[in-house]
Amino acid sequence: MGRPKKQKPTREDGRFEYKAVISHTIDGKAKYKSFYSYESKADARAKAEQYKLEREVSARTGEVFSGNNTTFAVWARKWLKSYKKSSVSANTYRNTYESTVENHLIPYLGNAKLIDIKQIDIQNFYASKSDTCSESLLHKIKLCLCGIFEAAIDNDLIVKNPAKNAAYISNVEKHEKKVYTDAQITKAKAYFKNDFFDVYFLLETGLRRGELLGLMWKDIDFTNKTLRVDRSVAEKQGGGVEIRPPKWDSYRTIPISTELCGLLSELPKSSIYVFPNVNNDIQTPRSWSRKLERHMKTMVKNCHCMIELTAHELRHTRGTQLRRNGVDIYTIQKLLGHKDINVTAQVYVHDDIETTRAAAKIV
Description:
The chain is mostly helical.
């Protein structure tokens, strides 16, 4: 009996390759992984068996499996696509999630393996951002980090979330939000009562921009003088708009004044929307904001001691006015549709110095 023939390498680079089934997809299809050896195919097969053994030990003990080479950048982008792109508006996806991941997280953590990232690395990352990022931006960053790592845990890529207990501090001076005083509110209402009524309406209700544009006539109860917030308009990636629930699912019914009811009743009702575009169709948030900017500039030119405000600052003016008038934060939360009372408290409890002065009886 002659000697068995010596096996020749199966690859041009001189290595032997062995393909092993390492798992199965949710529909039962086998998932393969290649293992290599310069010695023999049997040696490559032994590496495959060792790999599968380590996976099994990892599953039983909860220890991180060293065979996972997924980098932060690869997983973060997969998280964006699979977990966020279809669950939030296009604007929220771009401004809150995609920009945060691409502009802040991937440049710092992108090349690191998920399994190698520790809490100290996240802490050092926050330290590198403390002098350049505001508290609100750092909050977005942590929101993304925790979501990315929690999803990695759910998909068996890691066993711990290194961002969970990491803390950040911003050394950036807080930007003071612009609001109108009571006198400026009166002046703005008088100006916009007959010219771009949208501003008057926002100063009366504090609705978000998307909620304003999604408001339909059927949402207004003239008999009971209430307004129902049932939807919001958001930009779609690639153009156009989409109708979504209000932010944080903040469906709510709010009371409106007799005067506002009267002014609304005088508006044309040629569209299902209260504030349609020139074609009586729904407006895009971007085009509406450009229109607001033009009207604001004209108002500032024609009115003494007035300033330009954005839609969000008009909303913030309404909340500040309510607080100045002694309205409790629980009621403000309901009227503005904040996610929880902590948001309202952080924004309005100490926001207005004159309110604080009056409450403390400092003369």
